[in-house]
Each structure stands twice: as C-alpha cells, then as structure tokens.
Amino acid sequence: MTGSQETWLPQPDLDAIDVGTVLQALADPVRLQIVRALDAVGESTCSALDVPVKVSTVSHHVHILRRAGLVSTRLDGTSRPSRLRREELERRFPGLLDAILHAPPPAPPREP
Amino acid sequence: MTGSQETWLPQPDLDAIDVGTVLQALADPVRLQIVRALDAVGESTCSALDVPVKVSTVSHHVHILRRAGLVSTRLDGTSRPSRLRREELERRFPGLLDAILHAPPPAPPREP
DNA sequence: CGGAAGTTACGACATTAATCGTAATAGTAG
DNA sequence: CTACTATTACGATTAATGTCGTAACTTCCG
Question: Of A21, A30, A69, B64, most Cβ neighbours within 10 A?
C-alpha cells in the first residue's frame, strides 16, 4: 500500500513508565522548551530546534525525553526527526500533556 | 462566629508561578510521595508523614513545595500542618494535579 | 569510491540539589 | 518560670545532572 516502512529508534513501552519519570523529564527548562517546540512544529531534528544550548546538548535532552516515553524518533536518512507521542501519552496519562502544554504563562509581578 | 482566625505561612501567588516550577517541584520522588500522602490524608505535619528520609529533610521538601505553590501551611500552636492547594491549583493549571495524582502505576516488565 | 554533512556517543567539567546532624526558635503544659 | 515537644534554619557533605568539545558513525551525493 503506502510502502512507507518507516524505522524508529527503540523506545520504551509507555505502560512501564512511571509518572515520576515523566515529571523528571519535564522538569528541565530546556527540555520543556523542546517539548513545546515539538508541540508547535509537529516534528523536528535536534539541530533545527531553536534552543539556547549546543546541538550535542540538545541530542542529550532528546535522548532523555525518549527514554521517558515522551518523544519518538524516526530514521530518515541522516536525519532523525522526533515528535511527541501524543495519543499514547493521552491514553497512559490522560490530560497530563495538555495540562502542561496549555498552562497559561505566569503573570508578571505587580509593579506600583 | 467561629473565631477561627487562622494564620498561615507566607505563600506565593499562584498566578506568578510558572508551570516549570511546579514540574520541577514534583520531579523529586520524595516530594511526589509527600504530595500523594497529603492528597490521601488531607493535612499533615512534617513529622507525621511516612517518608524514608529524616524530618529535617521532609521540612526542606515541604518548603520547596510551598515555594512552588503546591501546598499551604497553617500555624497551629507548635504544629504546622500542610495541605494541597487543590482549588487554586485547579484554577491555575486545570487538570494538572488530577492527572498526576490519578496516574495509574506502571505495569511490571513482562517476565517469560 | 570518496568527500561532506548531520547526528550521537563519550569523557570531562561545573553547577545544582538532596541528605543529614545539630542548633536555634516558638509554643505548651505543669 | 522551666522543662519539654515540634519545627525549621544552617552548614557541610555527597550524589546527580546539565553543559560542552571532540570524535566516531551513518547516510547522501557527486
């Protein structure tokens, strides 16, 4: 049919992931920024992400996100674009990802 | 009427709290355990919580949770019982606390 | 086949954070 | 007023973790 036959980097079964692992993965500001960026663009490689750290560090963070079950990475030639595991996460932790991604930004401190 | 006149430890305005701060506070296993315990019993002091660390460490973790806007602490004589800021958290981050507290435990790895 | 580009694994360094023991503080009962 | 209890602030130690530079690896294209 489609003949897509895509290959993916090995990723954990979400049922075996504890919610604490997910929270720990999302605790880092850079990783949260990566998750938000992936939510916005849908799919991206490490080098294409606009984050204030070096590419090798981005790769490290994406690796942690993948181990925590948050993203899946596709093999496409020399490129390895990653995306959020939306549907699976919604089934495993209903409402969690949405609650985090749609959280309103903090109000600035009141100035006199 | 009731004349309760309760006093509380200073706590931040939830509107000024970033979701990243909340996630970072919940990232530690001990703190997540504390939050679950408070969810179960409603209110508790540091020394009454059943966690595998010393009381001074529990106090440290509760302090972090309070700074992150997750718990509020009441002054009651020599006792300082803390509780979750449920309603406020629900208004600030709808669905977040429930998603975390009601997350199903991980499935054990398949054994042959 | 060989050069070029993108990605990640590896090792090292710096920073952060968790934990504990002890001391200081505040309230309560006798 | 004094002894006792509960809590937290403080300082020190140890364990994690984020960051980077470099090298190795894979794929694509001429």
Answer: A69
Nearest-Cα distance to chain B for A2, in Å, is 33
Flag if B18 and A92 touch (Cβ within 8 Å).
no
Reported pTM: 0.92
Q: Which CATH architecture has domain A10-102?
A: Orthogonal Bundle (1.10)
**CB spacing of A107 vs B27 below 8 angstroms:** no
The CB density around residue B94, as the number of other CB atoms within 10 Å, is 16
As a rounded value in angstroms, the CA-to-C1' distance for A99 and C9 is: 34
What are the residue ranges spanned by the domains of chain B?
A: 10-102
